[in-house]
Recover the amino acids of this structure.
């Protein structure tokens, strides 16, 4: 007689019918096949076997995570007009397209400087004419002028670039209020996403000239400082034009941020503050030369380009 328990016929307990035993066996078999599994409070749910795996592209999914619709089915099913363009994967493709278009349009731009300033600057005002002069002198120095493409100081710098027979570039952005590309832009690119646009400002420029401006201008200024301070970009000159406007901010940085140890004294060397457009252009031209030759010699006292004042 076999001693293997599996070979022995064990009678069913009293009160249990053969049908009950068959039902139990069916449920066990079903659970092993992975079509039913016990859930909370004795409920059942469809899941793959405990060791079952479903692959969805590069993803490897188990248990609840494996209850997903096949990608082909999602693609081919019609859910509603235009629904797919509001999904994150589609947004990733749009973001990719903005980088591709920007890189393609600006790849052959040549030496350039990004000029920032307020969209609220009034034509004919002192700051407007200052921006025109900055754009014109940059163009005459052989540098393309990149702005945000909007009105105010951006329009003025683009206008100066055209007057100086240079390349005038505008990088526009989708905003809740209509702004549009100013008439002095020769090469204009409109962006949906700020981060894609900001990449173009830095990637294709060899320096920044910052005119008086508001939140957008400050955002671009401090982002440039962070990129230089963290060495994401090298030898990148940042010139602020307008000592009366910028000096209070630089003084606050000195007396508060530096004094309280929030930034180092050396970080202030990233900024040059001037009033003369010609000097601003000279400083970024020298900085652009160091950008092309980081190991080359510099002028001045070694803390920055000659002629500028540090805050």
């Amino acid at each position: 007689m076999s001693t293997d328990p599996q070979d022995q016929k064990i009678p069913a307990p009293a009160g249990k019918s053969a049908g009950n035993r068959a039902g139990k066996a069916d449920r066990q078999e079903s659970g092993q096949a992975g079509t039913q599994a016990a859930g909370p409070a004795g409920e059942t749910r469809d899941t793959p076997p405990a060791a079952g795996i479903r692959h969805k592209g590069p993803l490897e999914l188990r248990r609840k995570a494996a209850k997903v619709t096949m990608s082909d089915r999602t693609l081919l099913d019609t859910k509603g007009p235009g629904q797919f363009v509001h999904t994150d994967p589609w947004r990733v493709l749009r973001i990719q397209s903005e980088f591709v278009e920007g890189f393609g349009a600006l790849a052959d731009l040549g030496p350039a400087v990004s000029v920032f300033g307020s969209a609220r600057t009034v034509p004919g005002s002192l700051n407007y004419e200052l921006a025109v002069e900055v754009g014109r002198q940059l163009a005459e120095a052989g540098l393309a002028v990149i702005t945000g493409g909007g009105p105010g100081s951006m329009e003025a710098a683009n206008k100066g670039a055209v007057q100086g027979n240079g390349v005038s570039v505008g990088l526009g952005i989708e905003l809740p209020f209509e702004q549009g590309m100013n008439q002095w832009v020769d090469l204009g690119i409109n962006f949906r996403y700020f981060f894609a646009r900001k990449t173009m400002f830095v990637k294709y420029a060899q320096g920044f000239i910052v005119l008086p401006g508001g939140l957008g201008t400050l955002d671009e200024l401090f982002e440039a400082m962070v990129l230089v301070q963290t060495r994401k970009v090298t030898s990148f000159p940042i010139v602020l034009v307008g000592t009366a406007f910028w000096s209070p901010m630089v003084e606050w940085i000195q007396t508060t941020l530096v004094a309280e140890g929030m930034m180092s004294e050396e970080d202030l060397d990233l900024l040059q503050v001037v009033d003369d457009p010609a000097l601003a252009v000279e400083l970024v031209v020298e900085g652009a030369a160091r950008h092309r030759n980081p190991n080359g010699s510099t002028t001045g006292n070694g803390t920055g380009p000659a002629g500028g004042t540090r805050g």
